[in-house]
Every structure is written in structure tokens, then in C-alpha cells.
Amino acid sequence: MTASPIAGLQSVSVVVLSAYGGVVLGLMPLLLSALALPDQLETVADSMAGGLPRMSGRVLASLISIMSFEAALTSLWIYFVPVSLEAGHDAEQVATAVGICIGAQILGGLAAIAIGRRLGYGVLLGGATVIALGSVLLIERGADLAIYTIAVATFGFSWRLAVPYHVELMIAADPSRRFAIFTASAQGLGVAAGPFIASLAVTEHSVTRVVDVSSVLFLLSLTLFAIVCWRARGLVSRPVSASSL
After folding, report:
1. Strands, DSSP E only, in 165-226?
2. What is the pLDDT of residues 34-79, one digit of tens each?
3. Is the N or C terminus of the chain more exposed, i.e. has fewer CB atoms within 10 Å?
4. Are 80 and 95 in contact (CB under 8 A)?
5. What is the DSSP string of 138-163?
């Protein structure tokens, strides 16, 4: 008996809420460890004493690259279920894929912590963006269940692998680090803008155009990222250090 779309969506909700609860419980030790942090970060405070300098083109390109990356992710994620259903997968498969994607995001975040000191931020961000772009295309076109599952997993993995190193990109664009405080704002704007931009491509009969929207946003992010790295005069190859974050 084929599962109804409503039952599939209910399964998605259960998976998402369960995964969210597991993540929160898993992060509790990290949250409690924040109590050991110093009361003040004097270096950051001192660096902001003179106010913000004029925004350079490199900083602006970095901010737009970050916004585009996040918008590309959420433009697909918000329509992930209907895109998958339209690609030929049933509701049960889609519900399972959502859980796999969330689990892969956790692994991506752990991988970012583990390999960040060994690889330059350029390798991490550039590689993650290319992988995410390929995953988006396979999610729509991967009628084979195995390919679809792998694409969903790599999509979630690359998502959380890249996000922490947006700060490093901002530092490369502005060595004074004064504009790094806007990294989270750029990420938030991208998260909010993605679904809105994707909604403009949705028609009454199809949602697959959101894949094109996501792909274009990823390409824009990758292009601006490459320009920033090139203008940063080789900083792309510098490994991430704890003192720079």
C-alpha cells in the first residue's frame, strides 16, 4: 500500500523534531562550556574602537557570496519535499531523505571542526560549494534511489562543512576583521531571501524551477568567492588557525 503524501509529511515532521532534539542534547556540553569563556574579548573591543572603515569592494563581494550561498541552500530546502515528489520519489523515501540530510549536516559540522586546521578555508568553501551544486542537480535528476540518497547526504554535509568558514572568508577580505561581525547578518539574510526568490519560480503545476534558482545562486556565490580569494593574494591557501576565528 502506497503511503499518502500527508502521512509522508507527518513522518518528515517527526524525523525533523527528533533530530532537532538530539542535536540540542548533543550540544549541551558545548553550551555549558561557554561558562568558562572570558568575560571580555579585549582584542575585538580594541579593534572596533575607531569605528568601521569604508566598505571595500572585496568585503561587499564576500558578503554577497555568503548571502548567495545560504540563499541557494534554503531556496531548495524549503521546496525539498515537492521537488523530490515531482522527481518521482514517494513520500516515505522523501521522509527518510530528510532525516539523512539532517544527520549529514551534523557530520559536516564535525568534519569542519576536525579538518579545518589542516586545510585552507578556500579548499573547504570552494569544495563545499561545488559539491552542494552537484548535489542539487542530482536531487532533481536522480531518479535512482541510491543516487538520490547520496545526493541528499552530500547536500547536507557540504551545507554545514562550509558555513563556519564564512568568517575566515570575511577576514581574508578585510584583514582588520572589523567587518567580520556582519558574517552572521549576511548568512541570515541569505537564509531569509532564498525561499522568497525560489517562490518566484514556482508555478501552479511545477516546482522544479527552484533547482535552477538554487544552481544560479551557488554559481554566483562561487564566482564572487573566487574573485575574493584571487584579490586576497594567496590567502586562500592559508590553513585556518584558531587565533583567526
Report:
1. none
2. 555 555 555 544 545 555 667 677 888 888 999 999 999 999 999 9
3. N
4. no
5. HHHH--SHHHHHHHHHHHHHHHHHHG
Handedness of CA 114, 119, 124, 130 (dihedral sign): negative
Assigned domain for 13 exists: no
Whether residue 180 lies inside any domain: the answer is yes
Evaluate whether residue 50 is within a structural domain.
no
Nearest to 135 by CA among 166, 170, 162: 162
Q: Does position 230 have pLDDT exceeding 70, yes or no?
A: yes
CA dist 222 → 91, 154, 164, 175 (Å): 33, 17, 16, 21
pLDDT (0 to 100) of residue 90 = 84
The CA distance from 30 to 152, in Å, is 27
Residue 89 phi, psi dihedral angles, 5° rounding: -95, 145
Residue 157, class by beta-carbon neighbours within 10 Å (0-12 exposed, 13-18 middle, 19+ buried)? buried
Within a domain: 240 = yes
Mean pLDDT value of segment 218-241:
70
| Residues 181 and 45 sit within 8 Å (Cβ to Cβ) | no
Cβ(156)–Cβ(102) under 8 Å?
yes
User: Which residues span the domain enclosing 89?
Assistant: 55-244
Distance, CA of 61 to CA of 56 (rounded, Å): 9
Find cell 541510491 and name the residue: 146
Task: For the full predicted model, state whether its pTM sits above 0.90.
Answer: no
Q: Indicate the DSSP class of residue 53.
A: -
* CA dist 160 → 36, 86, 125, 145 (Å): 25, 26, 10, 23
